[in-house]
Design brief:
- This protein is of the alpha+beta class.
- The chain contains 5 helices and 11 strands; from the N terminus they run E-E-H-H-H-H-E-E-E-E-E-E-E-E-H-E.
- The chain folds into 3 domains: about 30 residues; about 60 residues; about 120 residues, L,D-transpeptidase catalytic domain-like.
- About 30% of the residues lie in helices and about 25% in strands.
- Strands 5-4-3-11-6 form a 5-stranded mixed sheet, with helices on one face. Strands 7-8-9-10 form a 4-stranded mixed sheet.
- The radius of gyration is 26 Å and the shape is globular.
- The N terminus is likely disordered.
- Pathway: Cell wall biogenesis; peptidoglycan biosynthesis.
- InterPro entries: LD-transpeptidase, LD_TPept_cat_dom, PGBD-like_sf, PGBDSf, Transpep_catalytic_dom.
């Protein structure tokens, strides 16, 4: 390693000099990065679903992005894990909101179209289109409907009739290396189980029907091995 002289004439190693120079330059770099991050944190662009998103959030519906619009959109995106979290009224944000509206419209009568069988006794129904699930006995609603998070594009939750065949209250996934509390398997490796994520967190699960903890626990108490499960519809975005 070579040596150089500093401004006072002292002999110091070249590597040390370069390290000192780097430290002196670091504050300017941090400030520059911070400023860039702040500038990119909230978009000024008007999204293709601006008016619909504004209406959903209770904002003035003028179709023009404002700082207050962006703040409200970003808060929604951050709550549900939608990225990039920059306040842009894009397709994923609106798709999530539209699903919420469909779930709200279902009220306490999720099976008015009779798409889930009513002649099988106790059955767990999963509507992929509305991302809803409920338990019914014949045509009588026993629990729900509740929001669920089903398989992402390429790992969709399989549709059709099946039965609960294995239950594990504290299951460990050897595939994803995560806990799957209140697991009730009904189709291959696909199961009802609880997660800590938002039910609207994109792009979705690996095929399981994710649930909030209280809902997964309620399903655990309601269902037994041999109970029917019926999955139908198509998840938005798949």
């Amino acid at each position: 390693m070579g040596v150089i002289r500093n401004i006072s004439g002292m002999r110091i190693r070249r590597g040390v000099a370069l390290s000192v120079a780097g430290l002196m330059a670091a504050p300017a770099l941090v400030l520059s990065t911070g400023t860039a991050a702040q500038a990119a944190s909230c978009t000024t662009s008007t999204g293709p679903y601006q008016k619909k998103v504004e209406k959903f959030l209770g904002r003035p519906v003028d179709g023009r992005q404002s700082p207050t619009d962006c703040k409200a959109i970003r808060a929604f995106q951050a709550k549900h894990g939608i990225t990039p979290t920059i306040g842009y009224a894009g397709p994923i944000t609106w798709r999530t909101m539209n699903t919420m509206l469909a779930q709200k419209a279902a009220g306490k009568n999720p099976n008015t179209a009779r798409k889930c069988p009513t002649n099988k006794g106790r059955i767990a129904c999963v509507d992929l289109t509305r991302q809803l699930s409920w338990v019914q006995d014949g045509s009588k609603l026993k629990y729900g409907p509740v929001p669920v998070r089903t398989g992402r594009n390429g790992a969709e939750t399989r549709t059709g009739s099946s039965k609960v065949y294995w239950r594990s209250i504290k299951h460990w996934s050897t595939i994803y290396h995560v806990w799957m509390p209140y697991s009730q398997f009904f189709d291959g490796g696909q199961a009802f189980h609880s997660v800590t994520k938002s039910m609207y967190n994109p792009p979705g699960s690996g095929g399981c029907v994710n649930m909030r903890s209280k809902d997964a626990k309620a399903y655990w108490n309601l269902l037994r091995n041999g109970d029917d499960v019926y999955v139908y519809g198509r998840k938005p975005g798949t």
